[in-house]
Amino acid sequence: MKKVLVGAGAAVLFFAGVGTAAADAWHHLPAMAPQGVYFSDGKYQFNPPERNHGAFEWKGQLTDALPNDGHNVYMLARAEGHGWSRYNGKQRRTVYMHQSNWDGAQRYTNDAEIRACRDRGSLRPDNCSPTLAYHGPKWN
Predict the structure, then answer these.
(1) How far is CA 125 from CA 12, 30, 42, 71, 132, in A?
(2) pLDDT in tens, 57-94
């Protein structure tokens, strides 16, 4: 009887672990391509509270798609409705980005937004991709 209870307990722990692993797995971010910018190979995940501040973590390749226009490219991301965090790319290059965004007042992040933009200077507005909004799991 004792072995049966130990086996059942191990099975419960195993399946609970599988659910946790699936919840914090990497997910695909679609390509973002407003004029002059190309963000590709994107992935994101919502980390559990005990890892990386419970952050919204994202990564991908940011490319200056119009290298001769003289404008820089950047990514904007925000967590839990706070202000946008800006991550600059490089003119005439492709750069790999791997960033995390979180709200320090919370144990984990479950709402985040991200977009790719081109900096067109002070006289013209920047052009950005549509904002992608993601909602993560409710960690206990």
Answers:
(1) 54, 24, 25, 12, 20
(2) 999 999 999 999 999 999 999 999 899 999 999 999 99
| 84 conformational bin, left if phi > 0, alpha if psi -120 to 50, beta if neither | beta
Q: What is the distance between the alpha carbons of residues 113 and 101, in angstroms, rounded to a whole number? A: 10
pTM equals 0.81
Instruction: List strands edge to edge, sheet with 94-101.
Output: 27-29, 37-46, 56-64, 94-101
Helical (H) or strand (E) element with 13: helix 2-23
CA–CA gap between residue 91 and residue 3 (Å, rounded) = 64
Tokens representing 73 are 């490219």
CA distance 72 to 94: 11
